[in-house]
């Protein structure tokens, strides 16, 4: 499956002031540590309420979707081992306008994950008396809760200031714990508490196909599986990126998806029938606010419940830590591409982009204000994440035509089929997240255009050497794509406010046809080979260490 084109050009990595201190295990654990966070604490409970026992199918669909996207990212990560890679592939392929757009999606996704993990930590901590009073009844943070959240964000940022090597060691230790605890919960709870009848007693799929598909996005399944790209974001700090990035990307997905599917099966099987006797939508039991810890206590495993409450601090904390790192690296990549102030590329003596970390901290604090709960943050971030991922298949299509001579340490089998398919799947996930989420995301996108577009215009007027060239011809498909996906969501049947004019299953065909049209349109109008290579060279040349 791996093929290296001998004597082919290699996309030089841009380390700048970043240091190459991370090996394969560090990269893989960065991704695994991001995948196994608050999603394992809440995902199984949220999914079964939306889809019933058929939530298992939802997890399989989500896994297939993430695998397809990870395969595309694996080839691109090997080709372009650059910091903040997911924000930069569309820049190479389609020029400044597309690069700015997908760069903003990437930054928006990364910047809001750490606050989600803080919300999860505070939510579970409410089990202890000392942490009660941090949330209101509607799960918004109280004044003391906001102060606590700010302190936790400060801890994430503080650890990052010690450099990527210290981060890799810290995250490695946390990730071993994060893998061990869910596996222990799976096997300990399953022994003596596995009731096969739970899968059918109240109906296997009580909410039908719509519930199964809706759960993929709205219940946190895709959010839980996100994180494989963290290895790619750290590519500029990898010791051997061409070899290690594909392995870390695909390996992390295999580990994370396997654990999550087992968690869903055991969660359903272990529940006492009384907890869902009135239907899965009304699932209720003592301690359900901390689903797994409450379940362990309910089945007589109080000691395990205590361990899970402790894990509710460590698992989200580890994920928040690595996403804080990722956000500063995406900021670094955006600045290198000319979409943000050059100050974001400055690194300290440890190779840490310290101004990017400060921006990450401030953004995290702002995220605590408008969102009342983990669930609402999840719905928002899922759409932003998949919009970010959608740029990779489009870039892949362009590179397959324009850069066939580039070295590919990992070559995607059947790439001409998997790449457009992964773009279709990404847009289905966006659609299933619902209109009530997408119209809010539209405002965040407009804010990004206002901020980054203003900077790009200013940089061009000032004649800055790194000012991005807004290649409207190569990105002519972009407005139609963003408006089209919004229009289909509004006319579809997912989410409050949707019109329901496109019936279920027909909507899948509409999304598929629309996605393929955009994919081949983007492929046909992508930047020419010379322009792509110039964009790559410009990034490398301007990446002198900036301290």
Folded structure, characterized:
The chain is mainly alpha-helical and 547 residues long. 66% of the residues lie in helices and 0% in strands. It has 20 helices and no strands. α6 (143-160) packs antiparallel against α14. It is globular. Residues 1-16 and 541-547 have low confidence and may be disordered.
Q: Separation of termini?
A: 41 Å
Query: Per DSSP, what share of the residues sits in E-state strands of 2 or more residues?
Result: under 5%
The secondary-structure class comes to mainly alpha
Oligomerization: single chain
Shape: globular
CA-atom Rg in angstroms: 22 Å
Strand tally is 0
Which spans have pLDDT < 50 for at least 5 consecutive residues? 1-16, 541-547
The helix count comes to 20
Helix content: 55-70%
Mean pLDDT score, rounded? 82
Major sheet description: none
Order of helices and strands: HHHHHHHHHHHHHHHHHHHH
Per-chain topology:
Elements: H1 24-35, H2 38-51, H3 55-79, H4 89-94, H5 96-125, H6 143-160, H7 164-190, H8 208-218, H9 221-225, H10 230-233, H11 241-270, H12 291-298, H13 302-336, H14 354-367, H15 374-402, H16 415-432, H17 435-461, H18 478-491, H19 506-525, H20 529-541
Helix pairs in contact: 1-7, 1-11, 1-13, 2-8, 2-11, 3-8, 3-11, 3-15, 3-16, 5-6, 5-13, 5-14, 5-15, 5-17, 6-13, 6-14, 7-11, 7-13, 12-13, 13-14, 15-16, 15-17, 15-19, 16-18, 16-19, 18-19
């Amino acid at each position: 499956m791996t093929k290296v084109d001998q004597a082919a050009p290699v996309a030089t990595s841009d380390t700048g002031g970043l240091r190459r201190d991370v090996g394969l295990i560090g990269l893989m654990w960065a991704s695994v540590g991001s995948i196994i966070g608050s999603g394992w604490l809440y995902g199984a409970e949220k999914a079964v309420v939306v889809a019933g026992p058929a939530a298992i199918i939802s997890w399989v669909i989500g896994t297939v979707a993430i695998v397809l996207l990870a395969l595309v990212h694996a080839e691109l990560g090997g080709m372009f081992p650059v910091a903040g890679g997911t924000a930069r592939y569309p820049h190479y392929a389609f020029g400044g306008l597309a690069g700015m757009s997908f760069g903003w999606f990437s930054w928006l996704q990364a910047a809001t994950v750490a606050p989600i993990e803080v919300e999860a930590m505070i939510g579970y901590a409410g089990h202890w008396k000392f942490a009660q009073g941090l949330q209101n009844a509607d799960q918004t943070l109280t004044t003391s809760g906001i102060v606590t959240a700010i302190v936790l964000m400060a801890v994430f940022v503080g650890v990052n200031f010690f450099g990527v090597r210290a981060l890799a060691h810290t995250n490695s230790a946390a990730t071993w714990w994060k893998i061990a605890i869910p596996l222990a919960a799976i096997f300990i709870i399953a022994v003596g508490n596995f009731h096969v009848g739970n899968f059918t007693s109240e109906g296997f799929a009580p909410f039908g196909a719509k519930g199964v598909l809706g759960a993929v996005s709205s219940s946190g399944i895709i959010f839980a599986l996100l994180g494989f790209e963290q290895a790619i974001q750290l590519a500029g700090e990898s010791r051997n990126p061409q070899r290690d990035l594909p392995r870390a990307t695909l390996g992390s997905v295999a580990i994370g998806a396997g654990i999550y599917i087992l968690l869903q099966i055991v969660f359903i099987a272990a529940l006492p029938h009384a907890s869902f006797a009135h239907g899965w939508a009304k699932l209720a039991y003592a301690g359900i606010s901390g689903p797994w810890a409450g379940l362990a206590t309910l089945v007589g495993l109080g000691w395990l419940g205590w361990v899970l409450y402790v894990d509710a601090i460590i698992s989200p904390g580890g994920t928040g830590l690595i996403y804080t790192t990722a956000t500063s690296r995406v900021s670094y990549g955006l600045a290198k591409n000319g979409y943000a102030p050059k100050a974001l590329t400055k690194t300290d003596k440890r190779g840490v982009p310290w101004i990017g970390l400060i921006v990450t901290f401030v953004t995290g604090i702002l995220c605590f204000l408008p969102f009342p709960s983990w669930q609402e943050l999840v719905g928002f971030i899922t759409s932003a994440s998949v919009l970010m991922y959608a740029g990779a298949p489009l870039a892949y299509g362009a590179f397959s035509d324009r850069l066939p001579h580039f070295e590919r340490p990992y070559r995607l089998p059947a790439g001409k089929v998997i790449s457009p398919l992964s773009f279709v799947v990404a847009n289905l996930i966006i659609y299933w997240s619902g209109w009530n989420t997408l119209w809010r995301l539209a405002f965040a996108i407009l804010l990004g255009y206002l901020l980054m577009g203003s900077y790009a215009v200013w940089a061009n007027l000032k004649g800055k050497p790194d000012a991005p060239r807004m290649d409207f011809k190569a990105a002519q498909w972009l407005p139609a794509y963003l408006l089209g996906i919004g229009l289909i969501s509004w006319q579809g049947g997912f989410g409050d406010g949707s019109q329901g004019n496109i019936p279920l299953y027909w909507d899948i065909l509409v999304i598929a046809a629309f996605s393929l049209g955009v994919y081949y349109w983007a492929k046909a109008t992508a930047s020419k080979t010379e322009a792509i290579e110039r964009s790559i060279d410009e990034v490398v040349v301007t990446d002198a260490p900036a301290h």
